[in-house]
Amino acid sequence: MPGVKIGERLKAARKLRNIPTRADLAEKVAKPRFGERVLGQIERNEREAQPHEIEWISEALELAPSFFTEPAEHETQLDRIERKLDQVINGLDRVQMRLDAVDSLRVETAELLPGIAELLHSEDQEGPAQEQSRF
Asked: If I label 4, which of 19, 54, 105, 129 is the partner at 20 to 30 A Cα–Cα?
């Protein structure tokens, strides 16, 4: 049986059961090689939870395994749209931060340009005068 991505539900279940950290949950699960690091990967959806792991987690949290594997009955299309909008907004926030950084660089460049132009102009003025004095 393939694994399942249960990250969001696992976080919600920990909060529901007042288990503040993944380390605390790992302690409750108490299985070898199934610690805080693995739970973190599962919560971040970097790794799929295997059926036996879902069983372990369910037992530790006193929840039915279906909590993690079945579609949420209460989730409406509006809920899904709101979740997608949140993802889009977060992406836009990251884009805005990058645009702000580019604008900051433009301002810094604009502030430096007059000084650069003045240096170039002064070098142009000094160059021919020095060449004429040599002859």
From this structure: 19
Q: Report the predicted TM-score, pTM, of the whole model to 2 decimal places.
A: 0.52
Q: Domain coordinates of the chain in residue numbers? A: 7-69, 73-135
| Backbone φ/ψ region at 64: left (φ over 0), alpha (ψ -120 to 50), beta | beta
Mean pLDDT by runs of 10 across the 135 residues of the chain is: 82 92 95 93 93 95 90 66 83 90 84 81 68 52
- Indicate the fold that domain 7-69 takes in CATH: 434 Repressor (Amino-terminal Domain) (1.10.260)
- Strands (E) in the chain, as ranges, are none
